[in-house]
Amino acid sequence: MDAELARTLARSYVDDQSHAWAVFGDQLADAGDPRGELIAIEQRLAARDDDDGADIDDETRALWKRRHALVEANQARWLGDEVAAALALPGRELGRVLTWRYGYLERLSLWFSYETDKESFEQARARMTRQVGALLDCDAARFLRSFACSVSEQGHIDDLVQVIARTPRAVTALELSCWAREVDQPAVGTARCDALAHALPALRQLKLHGARMLQTLRHAALETLQLDRADALDGLLEDNNDIARDDAPELPALSHLDLALRNSPYYTPVDATQPPRLVTLLCNPAMPALRSIDLSRNDDCSEPLYQPELLAALAERRPETLLLPTPLGEHAADALRAQAGALSRIAKLSMPRLYTHASAVSEDALREMLPALQIEAVLPHRPSWAVRGREVLEVNSGDKSECVWVGFASLMELIEEHWPALGAPQRAAVDGLIAAYEEIDYYDEGDGRPLRAELRRAPLRAAFEAMGLDDEAAPYWLNGRIVEMYKVLCDERHDTIDIEKVWGW
């Protein structure tokens, strides 16, 4: 593929009806390349997208089935021998989810770990560098738009950033995660952070999960930043008003900040989450265009966010949208009451519905205190890592003849993986499922909360099919219980399903 053609195709890669890709697909088909047939099928599927969320018809289902068959039969060849050799290196298998579009990788999600009794830390570093590099640098990844990688050791983050930054890439969404329990090394340094920003000029969304991930970030086009731990981007916790600092973050286009104070239900928030440093982060001048602040993912550790000085600083900054966690303690409720007048001047003030039943303030009192407050479902509600392993969704067919138990964490992982690509009807169906699950209770505690919920079957089936399931096959990596749940959704004898919440064993 010559450079001019590559640039033309790159500009319209995410266009469902791109003329350039249609012409290119015809040329490939004439040459006997299966990518040509795949391009034609995907454009036909995009044109047939049903906005009302109803059942997918037989012809559309046949197109999806043929698409899956083409990808399964050809993806190893598209990835190439270098990737195959890297993935075959001894050590724990590299976890991966590949999402294809037009025969090229659109999204790539990897998770890397190693076993200390089978390879040394240095051996693991070398293996990770080769495996991740082979996937990112292969021809199939030339149009890659979304890359996510999770590692288990903090020392691997620096190597990971170096691999990503070694050549310019078209990535618009980047997610880096580190689940190390021991954090004993500094964040990735300024030079590497600058190289990362230079290599990803089209980056619009960045997610960092873990302590001390990057020291700084200077990016002219980044619009959305999600931090799981307040110190994930260390430089935002520093006072950047000192003009002598040459490593201060610069995020002039950033409009949305999503902050969770910790990146695992097992880790307590670090010292950096204390109110003075949080004020520095949330009001940092490095983010002059910030219009939306989402703090809703802190319901289990919301107290540091309900400090008078922090609420006052948020009210003074006055973003267009502010999502708050539920005030779970009396201290939080008192702080909210004290700042209610100032917060009311924010155009959109929101709070997730799922925990309002546990709030120290009733929903009626919240609405009286903040008349413009919107209490709504906020996806992903709790992120998948915050879901306890024993939380189980029970799915029953309309006549209760079929019953499936599904681990809720596995279901959330699937939804989070595919959420950005879902259409509005599918998002509404999935959001309704999660909101209903969060509202029901395990047992009758006498508080009036329901123990079951009834949901329409057809929109959920369409949503699950949009996430890659069909009635013939499922991705090899998918949890088998989710596949069984999908089969219940395919039972056309009933218009609804029932769900309940179970504490699994």
Relevant terms:
single chain; 505 residues; alpha/beta; 4 domains; eleven-stranded mixed β-sheet; four-stranded antiparallel β-sheet; 15 strands; 16% strand
Give a verbal description of the structure.
This protein is α/β, with parallel strands linked by helices and 505 residues long. The protein folds into 4 domains: 3-71, no CATH class; 94-290; 303-378; 387-503, no CATH class. The protein is 37% helix and 16% strand. The chain contains 16 helices and 15 strands. Strands 1-2-3-4-5-6-7-8-9-10-11 form an 11-stranded mixed sheet. A 4-stranded antiparallel sheet has the order 13-12-15-14.
Counting helices, strands and paired strands, the structural category is: alpha/beta
Count of the separate structural domains: 4
Query: What is the chains' assembly state?
Result: single chain
Helix content: 25-40%
What is the 3D form?
A: globular
How many DSSP H or I helices? 16
Largest sheet, in brief, is: 11 strands, mixed
Span of the ends, CA to CA: 54 Å
